[in-house]
Write a structure and sequence with these properties.
The protein is mostly beta strands. It is 11% helix and 41% strand.
């Protein structure tokens, strides 16, 4: 019993989650969603042939909250490698495509190329789009309407695969959106 009492005392001495949330620049919410991002080589991608050649994957998460004014609040950074690293984001937005039954997340990053220990998979600099199937409705009123199937992550890059230099969408991984019951700081 002494170990349990010591553990409870240590837990009580830690700052409360709302204090941590204020430091992180977020506020507590009634529910949040977690966007699971899994970057790596996919079939039929036009990414550079050396990108993701090893077959390794870069798994990361981003917590999001749908606001009443139609905006999107996110955690300040993408958590890489189970939270051991983080990648700051410049901004994020979402859009529901009702005709295609998709929810699109546009996320701006400075890229993860400076993380040399991640191998041959990196998050490209600029904007990437995570597209997840969506059954429909307002995400605040129907929080669990995302598809159980994985969506795709695309990046917009200059390419030459058609013989012309042009901007093209390239598949950079897969994603899933899930409802969670924890605060944005975790």
């Amino acid at each position: 019993m002494k170990l349990r009492e010591e553990a409870e005392a240590m837990s009580a001495a830690l700052p409360q989650s709302e204090t941590l949330l204020r430091r992180a620049g977020a506020e507590p919410s009634s529910f949040t969603h977690r966007l699971f991002l899994n970057f790596g080589r996919e079939e039929n991608t036009w990414m550079d042939p050396s990108w993701g050649r090893s077959g390794r994957r870069l798994e990361c998460t981003l917590d999001v909250e749908f606001l009443s004014d139609g905006g999107l609040r996110t955690s300040p950074s993408i958590r890489l490698r189970g939270g051991f690293d983080s990648l700051p984001i410049g901004g994020a937005s979402y859009e529901i495509e009702s005709k295609k039954n998709n929810i699109l997340f546009r996320i701006e990053t400075k890229g993860s190329e400076n993380y040399t220990n991640l191998g041959d998979v990196s998050i490209p600099e600029g904007c990437f789009i995570a597209c997840q199937g969506w059954i429909g409705g307002d995400p605040r009123k129907n929080p669990d309407n995302s598809s159980v199937r994985e969506g795709i992550i695309t990046v917009r890059q200059r390419g030459w695969h058609t013989g012309f230099f042009r901007m093209e969408n390239r598949i950079a991984g897969v994603c899933k959106l899930r409802v969670i019951n924890e605060k944005l700081s975790q």
